[in-house]
Amino acid sequence: MDIEIWSDVACPFCYIGKVHLEKALEKIPKVSVNITWRSFELDPNAPTEPEADIYDTLATKYGKDRDWAIDMNKNMTQMAEKVGLDFNMDAVKPTNTFNAHRVIQFADSKGLQHEMKERLLKAYFTEGKNVGDVATLSELAEDIGLDKNEVFKTLNGKQFTDEVVQDIERAHKIGVQGVPFFLINNKYGLSGAQPVEAFVEALTKIKKES
Q1: Does domain 2-209 have CATH number 3.40.30.10?
Q2: Domain ranges of the chain
C-alpha cells in the first residue's frame, strides 16, 4: 500500500494526523505500507525570521484578536496531548518552511525522510526551533545522522528546490485544498487529521480491494 502525505512542518493538524495514521497502521495486521512525505506550504510568503509570535501571526492572518488565537492554540495543545504530543505553543517561531521541505527531500535521498519529518515537527511544535533557518536545519539534520556540513551547503544552493515545487504543483493539480492530505495507492484521498478509527476503516477497506 502506497501512502503519499502532503503536509507542512508548521501544521499542527499534520503532526496529529501523522500520529493517528501510525496508530491506525498498528491496528491493521499484515499490511505493508510505503509512506512518502510530500511538500506543501501553508504560508509561502512567511518570512524566514519570525516577526511575531504564533498568536499575533494567526490573529493577523485570520482577522481575529489575540485572545481568539490563544484559545485556539489551547484547544490544539489539548488535542495533541491526547495522542502523546507535547505542544509548546508559547515557544513556536512562525517561519517560512520552504527550506524545511528541501531538507526533508534531501533526507529522502539518504533514506531518512521519515526521521527528518518527525525531527522537524518536534523541533517546531515542542522545542521552539526556527525551522526556516539554514543553520538550525543543518543541526536538526545532524541529529538524525545526516552530515551537517553537507546539509548546510545544500540548503545554501538550489538543490531540491524543484522537488518541493513539483510536490506543491501536483497538490494543486489533484485539488488539495488543505493539509494533511493522504493519497492512497494514487486513487483514494483522505483529508484532515482523521480519527484513528476512520483511518483503520478506510485502510482496511482499501487493503481488501487491493
Answers
A1: yes
A2: 2-209
Alpha-carbon gap, residue 185 to 39, rounded angstroms: 18
Is this prediction's pTM over 0.90? yes
Residue 8: partners with Cβ closer than 8 Å, 6 or more residues away: 14, 40, 41, 42, 97, 101, 179
Residue written as cell 531538507? 103
Residue 182, phi then psi, degrees to nearest 5: -110, 120
* pLDDT tens sequence across 121-157: 999 999 999 999 999 999 999 999 999 999 999 999 9
- Return the closest-CA partner of residue 1 out of 24, 31, 37, 38: 31
Q: How confident is the model at residue 31 (pLDDT cuts 50, 70, 90)?
A: confident
